[in-house]
Design brief:
By secondary structure, this protein is of the alpha/beta class. The chain has nine helices and ten strands. α6 packs antiparallel against α8. The two termini are 35 Å apart.
């Protein structure tokens, strides 16, 4: 645990990369808390997520971003805009890649944005436990030729390998300045937003491939009972098609109960209290292309 030494240096660091490369897993591992939801489905992260790590006199502020992809909806356009804005006006950018000896179109676009903003960058090669050393060297040589990275750090975000070395490198980008976030604060996300994301994570985990990307979650009630420490949460799950509503609810409500039970356990761990969770499912056709609904669900640059 950090002593009471005053923060003297800070750094803002963006984590970027293609979908499913492990950005949110890295963010959670760096700060030691589950801040961002994690699944094996693309577009799990839709918004900018901020997390804070205090180390002695240094405060590192990490910005997790959606995985870069070609947008096909207003929501997709918003996610790409979040990425572009997040690789500008920061102290350093992490480009996270898999140990594959090929630079894809997504990586090329991200490298282009990093170069255009002339921002210091670190290449982080994740999932190194899945390849041999010779294959890893091939990947390193390929990216070294593509861009002048300040450092290249092989890691396993899931196992924690290489994270201490990465943090030491990131410490070097911290500049003298006031503490940006108070002690004890590990994210700027409101509790309602984190709870909504937990529910969406369980939807992504439980549902078929084509359905989760058309779901959004709105917390309509969040209150603590006066006579006990139980927290009442009511959530509405939105889908784009009537047929998807039936799939989310499941036969005799089985799927919705499973999602709710899994979410409730994680919400209780997050809140440190008993939670009574109620969920409903509503249809909002093409909500991903509705500017009004995107703002309503929190996908806004304002």
């Amino acid at each position: 645990m950090r002593d009471k030494q005053t923060i003297q240096k800070t750094a803002m660091i963006t984590i970027s990369g293609r979908p499913n490369v492990g950005k949110s897993t890295l963010l959670n591992a760096l700060v030691g808390e589950k801040i961002a939801i994690v699944t094996n489905k693309p577009q799990t992260t839709r918004n900018r997520i901020l997390a804070v790590l205090n180390r002695e006199e240094t405060q590192l502020v990490f910005i997790d971003t959606p995985g870069y992809h070609a947008p096909r909806t207003r929501l997709g356009n918003y996610m790409v805009k979040v990425i572009r804005e997040s690789v500008a006006d920061v102290d350093a950018v992490i480009l996270m890649v898999e140990p594959i000896p090929n630079i894809g179109a997504q990586e090329e676009r991200l490298i282009g944005w990093i170069a255009a903003n002339d921002v210091p960058s670190i290449l982080v090669i994740n999932k190194i436990d899945t390849v041999k050393k010779e294959e890893l060297l091939e990947v390193i040589n390929l990216y070294q030729a593509a861009h002048k990275f300040d450092a290249i750090v092989p890691i396993s975000a899931q196992k924690g390998d290489g994270l201490e070395e990465l943090i030491k490198i990131l410490d070097g980008y911290a500049l003298e300045g006031p503490q940006l976030f108070p002690d004890g604060m590990i994210t700027d996300q409101p509790e309602r937003q984190i709870i909504a994301e937990i529910i969406r994570e369980k939807l992504l985990f439980c549902l078929q491939k084509e359905i989760p990307h058309g779901t959004a979650v709105e917390i309509t009630k969040f209150s603590e009972r006066e006579d006990s420490e139980i927290i009442d949460v009511e959530a509405t799950i939105y889908v784009e098609k009537q047929s998807h509503k039936g799939m989310v609810i499941g036969k005799q409500g089985a799927m919705l109960r499973q999602v709710g039970e899994m979410a409730r356990k994680d919400i209780e761990r997050f809140m440190g209290a008993k939670v009574y969770l109620e969920t409903w499912v509503k249809v909002k056709e093409r909500w991903r292309d509705s500017a009004y609904l995107l703002r309503n669900f929190g996908y806004t640059n304002e």
